[in-house]
Write a sequence for this structure.
């Protein structure tokens, strides 16, 4: 078990490389991975179940101590990322399916690896975990509402169908994970140790399925989509950080805000796009999954060197949450 836990930590720490490696492999050999299409939703459910296993009341400690900071992060996330997505779609005159895919990933809650990046960046981990948890819990309402508001000009969007899907993909697995945690108690710790391995394998398989199913379209317009994804992610970091600066937050909280705003739950984006639109609409989410793990690690390394001599960090703990 100890060896498996060590392998899990290694795979979790090298997440970006595995996603990139298998995305390239799926592009080069799509026939190997097209059969994974039917596994996209169950794999996302597995990742969300793992989040439920690790979710505790302590994760909301920052909400009770500094509710306005958590609220600021949640509002910034659900305003900046959907807004930037819509502007980029208009600016680049993206085709309908790609535009919907870009907006869809912009309307998703915070990414599952943002907490680890915040820890690496020496940001406020408690604030990061609280923002990620609250955006995820609000996703069944806000994500379909924002997609309907912003993407209906390109393709028909059903709020109710998406609402039901997010309840199935996200909320039900999280609730089951929380219940399992309560029933199993200390025995859950064994499962939590291998969660990074399970999460990485699941997300890599989702990315492989999406890339394989849309290989021809990626060959045709992949560079444009990648450019839009990189700009979307970068503006999320930038505007998230300067939102914190504008509100006079200490450096640790500005780091957390930047990473929580800029990193998306791209697995949810891919699952929703595949279920409600087309494999091509899922491509922005797949490329976002590859890119934001690379950019997040680079930004966290840069942030780590930044120190605020006037204000000590208010993080509650010195280890990453397993989300």
């Amino acid at each position: 078990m100890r060896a498996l836990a060590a392998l899990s930590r290694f795979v979790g720490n090298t997440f970006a490389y595995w996603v990139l490696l298998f995305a390239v492999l799926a592009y080069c050999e799509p026939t190997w991975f097209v059969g994974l299409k039917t596994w996209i939703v169950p794999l996302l459910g597995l990742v969300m179940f793992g989040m439920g296993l690790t979710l505790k009341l302590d994760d909301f400690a920052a909400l009770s101590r500094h509710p306005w900071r958590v609220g600021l992060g949640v509002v910034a996330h659900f305003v900046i990322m959907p807004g930037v997505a819509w502007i980029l779609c208009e600016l680049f005159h993206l085709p309908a399916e790609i535009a919907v895919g870009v907006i869809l990933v912009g309307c998703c809650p915070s990414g599952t690896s943002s907490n680890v990046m915040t820890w690496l960046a020496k940001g406020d981990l408690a604030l990061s975990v609280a923002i990620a948890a609250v955006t995820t819990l609000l996703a069944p309402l806000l994500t379909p509402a924002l997609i309907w508001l912003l993407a209906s000009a390109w393709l028909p969007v059903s709020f109710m169908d998406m609402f039901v899907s997010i309840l199935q993909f996200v909320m039900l697995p999280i609730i089951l994970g929380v219940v399992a945690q309560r029933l199993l108690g200390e025995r859950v710790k064994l499962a939590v140790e291998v969660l990074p391995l399970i999460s990485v394998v699941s997300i890599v398989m989702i990315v492989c399925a999406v890339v394989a199913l849309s290989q021809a379209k990626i060959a045709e317009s992949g560079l444009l989509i990648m450019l839009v994804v990189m700009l979307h992610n970068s503006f999320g970091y930038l505007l998230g950080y300067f939102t914190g600066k504008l509100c006079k937050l200490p450096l640790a909280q500005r780091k957390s805000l930047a990473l929580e705003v800029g990193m998306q739950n791209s697995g949810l984006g891919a699952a929703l796009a595949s279920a409600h639109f087309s494999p091509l609409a899922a491509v922005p989410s797949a490329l976002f999954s590859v890119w934001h793990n690379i950019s997040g690690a680079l930004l966290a390394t840069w942030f780590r060197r930044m120190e605020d001599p006037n204000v000590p960090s208010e993080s509650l703990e010195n280890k990453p949450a397993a989300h």
Notes: The chain has a mean pLDDT of 85. The longest helix spans residues 215-246.
